[in-house]
Amino acid sequence: MKIYTFERKSRIILQNMKNRIGFITLLITVFVFCSFTSKNSSQKGQKVLIKTTLGDITLKLYNETPQHRDNFIKLVKSKFYDGVLFHRVIADFMIQGGDPKSKTAAQNDTLGDGDVGYSVPAEFRTPKIYHKYGALAAAREGDNVNPQKASSGCQFYIVVGKKFTDKDLDLMQLNRKQKIRSQLFQKIMNEKQAEAESYKQNNEIKKLESLKDSVMHKLQNEMDADSSYIFTPEQRETYKTIGGTPHLDGNYTVFGEVLVGMDVVEKISKVKTNNLDRPIEDVKVIKMKLIR
Q1: What is the pLDDT of residues 223-263, one digit of tens each?
Q2: Is 46 helix (H, G, I), strand (E, B) or coil?
Q3: What is the distance between the alpha carbons of residues 118 and 121, in angstroms, rounded to a whole number?
Q4: 3-state secondary structure string, 195-217?
Q5: Is 125 within 8 Å of 110 (Cβ atoms)?
Q6: How wide is the angle at C-alpha 288 spanned by C-alphas 269 and 59, nearest 5°?
Q7: What is the 3-state secondary structure (H, E, C) of 119-163?
Q8: Disulfide check for 86: which of 6, 82, 97, 135 has CB 3.0–4.6 Å away?
Q9: Of 235, 253, 252, whose CA–CA distance to 66 is shortest?
Q10: Contact between residue 48 and residue 292 where contact means Cβ atoms under 8 Å apart
């Protein structure tokens, strides 16, 4: 009888423990889910106010580039950008900032190589997102040391650019196509190099010719499938009427745009600069903060 009572009590206790554990697990799951959802929803459609010594700029961050969006938000929250300079300014092109070294730089210091020790993978979204007038994009190191076109972890630029004609865009499109074709051809040839060398050494001319034909066939097929170099009607209209920097499309990640304050961006872009494009009189980010 005692054994039965003990077993029965044990079952009841175990069942109660299971119920409690299940309830606690449910609470934890709901809490984590709500926290995750709240965090993610707060990231989406995020706006940023940049207070500069020449006026205020309001940015909108794109949801389509989440890694760049979240990294920018993290830096803004940590006040990383407070006190940095717009250290590179080119009229009819862009204004660039975000170098942490610029916070304490002397007037004649060369800036532009400061960083946070990491990069952000490229998030190209052309043709939907491109370098129109007012676009916010990430600076990066050159192709020779950065073939993946990964972005700087902190440096950014805002596009001013200029307006283009259809003739300008046609020529730019042709140059883009030729560059892509050349890069693709080199990639395919690198893959086939060992095979080609073997045919050459053994004087197998027919196999070498066949390999050449297959390379050219693959090149053409891949070029036919790639339309990234073609400006869409929307892009053309924007670049002709509003302006931008179309030659940067597909090479630098655009992750936001200016909502308010392009007059301030224009003002900054026109300040006097030295031979390294640094403003003679510092243009400083006084503060950046998240707004809704």
Answers
A1: 888 888 899 999 999 999 999 999 999 999 999 999 999 99
A2: coil
A3: 10
A4: HHHHHHHCCCHHHHHHHHHHHHH
A5: no
A6: 60
A7: EECCCCCCCCCCCECCEEEECCCCCCCCCCCCEECCCEEEECCEC
A8: 97
A9: 253
A10: no
CA gyration radius for the chain? 28
Question: Model-level pTM?
Answer: 0.79
* Residues in Cβ contact with 23 at an 8 Å cutoff, skipping those fewer than 6 apart: none
Q: Which residues contact 119 (CB under 8 A, 6 or more apart)?
A: 140, 146, 150, 151, 152, 153
Cα 231 from Cα 148, distance rounded (Å): 22
Determine how many CB atoms are found less than 10 A away from the CB of residue 257.
19
CA 52, 55, 61: angle at the middle one, nearest 5?
A: 70
Please tell me the distance from the alpha carbon of residue 165 to that of residue 179, in angstroms, as a whole number.
21
Q: Would you say 276 and 283 are in contact if contact means Cβ atoms under 8 Å apart?
A: no
Euclidean distance between CA atoms 17 and 27, whole angstroms: 15
Question: Which ranges of the chain does DSSP label H, i.e. alpha helix?
Answer: 2-43, 66-77, 166-201, 205-225, 233-241, 262-269
